[in-house]
């Protein structure tokens, strides 16, 4: 087990970490503003990945795959906001959480009923990996990193530079204050669900580009994404991204020691240990617990 | 037809043990357990493996309950430290991790190939007669026992306090009582039911594999509990009967519906569960029968 | 001064950069009727939360019956005899009024599961005793008619009485009331005041944080005024209300 093995694992960890980060950011935005952990995020990602299969009909290359996936994710996300989560807004977080799990199941059921359980791959040209120093890099790896970083940059720009983004952060920081100061909640919520859907769709397609497209991919991605969200303190966007990368690295780097199957468990272990030490996650503003 | 109904009824009874447990945890105490299936799996594999090691079922079934209770202990302590949303997600991960261990540790559990040839209830307990009928009688006895235990618990000063905790934890503290002790006790005791349920299941189906223990099963139980009305012992039974009757029935339904494959039927089941979770939360969080608690 | 039951020394609390409480000290005598007033945002709620252990202060100490309870959690302060009510009543909505009171009885053997299943006779006897105690307070608080109604069906004023009943079941040496008159109709304000007076005569101490100045000043024999995180004045109600600084702070000098 030499240096190059670990370098490659770390590189792969970074890529899966970015994919996890995107979904974690989606979850953390929903939590910050709608105040519940959205378990449907993973299956929105799956829908995005499947919609990505339509990409080649619109035009070639990874870009169209990604665009189709993001559009589908956004559409689904906003539709369920109006149909499901807006009517549930006044009730407890547990209601919305259970409903979101129901939505996850329903979406996956619809996918498997009409499209079956088969795995699919995007029709991308197969290119040999390039050696970069000790790393073996696929051209798609570069595309994934670029797409993820651009998307993260875009989301943080929106959050920090645009009026609607600033209102989102205001609501996330203090719902009561935001309500009193007369922020039009509906527009903020629609924008938030739109961004959350775009991010989930992107996360799904990038995972599809990296591996394969399957109906269970989103649900399997949900656990590491939740772990990343909590690790970075739920509701904290920067924390979610860092948490995602951390989880990705931990999963990949542990593979030589625990085997392929248990690498999914590593994310959970990291989460558990973190919570035992810091019950509010790594980036809690104040760790006051009773 | 009768034997088919009986077969469905056995599974519904086994599942309703879990519904009763979840009802104590969430319906009466407000504890969110999204890892029900993990404790079910622990019970099932414990009893199956012990019986394969030569222990009689009279011992392995109580051991199944104890193993699940033991596994619930650290988790219950964790619930005291974490925010409710964090704990819910940790429980999801906990159950998935248990399934991961089962599929990975082949030397013990047979891994994904499964664990075949588990002693059936009638053979293992040496009761002569139709195996399904024996299983039915035993499962029914266990459910009756669990109902009696639940009722005694709920109608005691202990039960009064857990409902108080569900209604307002801070107000309980203001009376000089720590909610923690009560929560841990409820969580562990009701996981005994879940473990027993797993044990019965192992010896009824006589074959175990990791894919029987997916997260979906946890939410079967949630939907059954909410249907019957959280916080109502009788409702838990009715909810289980309605829902699990349908779920189990649908396994046989594809024989009657030409053109729908078994695989498509499993999608339909998943879809129905998902849809009912959304519709219940949206329109009837108090369940069909209307429990005391609800999820609103 | 009479022997102090509750003694608060140098309490400070900041939220972010904002100082909510600055060096607040006061002492409420044992068995006495003390009140605390102050305009909105004076820090009353924060002080109340720190005294009862629901929040931690940034400095200072809380002594109860001569014992330093600053580091003790709420539950243990209550066990020492410091009961409280909430500004917005927090009844156990799905339990009946009677059950609310019975749940509050301290040290119940029936709250242990092994007793529930293996010593049913003991628990029946205990429950009868608790029910009798609850019955007495229900009668005292005039809640008998609604004893078996779910607590969620009560009116605002009845909920205040229910909370008082629950606190009494704890057998406290002192009860801290958080705005007992808020949202209560005038008739019931009189009734609640009367009950408090009777309880005080039985030796239970009270510290009442209240907005309703008129009702409070008629009730208490010692008044503290909190303003912008500082103790502005203390003394007999008549003296305190005559104080110019108090009139300035509390009534904007208009009265």
Question: What does this entry show, briefly?
Answer:
Chain A has a single domain (3-277), classed as Orthogonal Bundle (ABC transporter involved in vitamin B12 uptake, BtuC). Chain A is built from 11 helices and 2 strands; from the N terminus they run H-H-H-H-H-E-E-H-H-H-H-H-H. Chain A has helices at residues 3-34, 41-52, 55-58, 61-85, 93-115, 139-161, 163-173, 175-180, 185-210, 217-231, 237-277, and strands at residues 130-132, 135-137.
Task: Please describe the structure with a list of short key phrases separated by commas or semicolons.
heterotrimer; A: 290 residues; mainly alpha; ABC transporter involved in vitamin B12 uptake, BtuC; 11 helices; globular; disordered C terminus; B: 296 residues; 76% helix; ABC_transp_permease (chain B); Amino acid/amide ABC transporter membrane protein 2, HAAT family (chain B); branched-chain amino acid transmembrane transporter activity (chain B); cell membrane (chain B)
Give the topology:
The complex is a heterotrimer of chains A (290), B (296) and C (255).
Chain A: H1 3-34, H2 41-52, H3 55-58, H4 61-85, H5 93-115, E1 130-132, E2 135-137, H6 139-161, H7 163-173, H8 175-180, H9 185-210, H10 217-231, H11 237-277
Antiparallel strand pairs in A: 1-2
Chain B: H1 2-28, H2 36-52, H3 57-81, H4 84-104, H5 106-109, H6 121-125, H7 131-154, H8 157-167, H9 169-173, H10 179-205, H11 215-228, H12 233-256, H13 262-283
Helix pairs in contact in B: 1-7, 1-10, 1-11, 1-12, 2-3, 2-4, 2-10, 3-10, 7-10, 8-10, 11-12, 11-13, 12-13
Chain C: E1 4-15, E2 18-29, E3 33-37, H1 44-52, E4 59-64, E5 67-68, H2 74-79, E6 82-84, H3 97-104, H4 113-118, H5 120-140, H6 156-169, E7 174-178, H7 186-201, E8 205-209, H8 213-219, E9 222-227, E10 230-235, H9 237-242, H10 244-251
Helix pairs in contact in C: 3-6, 5-6
Describe this structure in words.
Chain C: Residues 6-253 form the ABC transporter domain. Chain C: InterPro entries: AAA+_ATPase, ABC_AA/LPS_Transport, ABC_transporter-like_ATP-bd, ABC_transporter-like_CS, BCA_ABC_TP_C, P-loop_NTPase. Chain C: Keywords: ATP-binding, Nucleotide-binding, Transport. Chain C: Pfam families: ABC_tran, BCA_ABC_TP_C. Chain C: This is Amino acid/amide ABC transporter ATP-binding protein 1, HAAT family. The complex is a heterotrimer of chains A (290), B (296) and C (255). Chain A has helices spanning 3-34, 41-52, 55-58, 61-85, 93-115, 139-161, 163-173, 175-180, 185-210, 217-231, 237-277, and strands spanning 130-132, 135-137. Chain A is mainly α and 290 residues long. Chain A has a single domain (3-277), classed as ABC transporter involved in vitamin B12 uptake, BtuC (Orthogonal Bundle). In chain A, helix 1 runs parallel beside helix 6 (139-161) and helix 2 crosses helix 10 (217-231). Chain B has one domain (2-212). The longest helix of chain B is centred in the first third of the chain and has 27 residues, at 2-28. Chain B is globular. By secondary structure, chain C is α/β, with parallel strands linked by helices. Chain C folds into 2 domains: 4-91 and 155-251, Rossmann fold (3-Layer(aba) Sandwich); 93-153, no CATH class. Chain C contains 10 helices and 10 strands. Chain C has helices at residues 44-52, 74-79, 97-104, 113-118, 120-140, 156-169, 186-201, 213-219, 237-242, 244-251, and strands spanning 4-15, 18-29, 33-37, 59-64, 67-68, 82-84, 174-178, 205-209, 222-227, 230-235. The radius of gyration of chain C is 19 Å and the shape is globular. Chain C starts with a strand and ends with a helix. At the A-B interface, helix 5, helix 10 and helix 11 of A face helix 4, helix 11 and helix 13 of B.
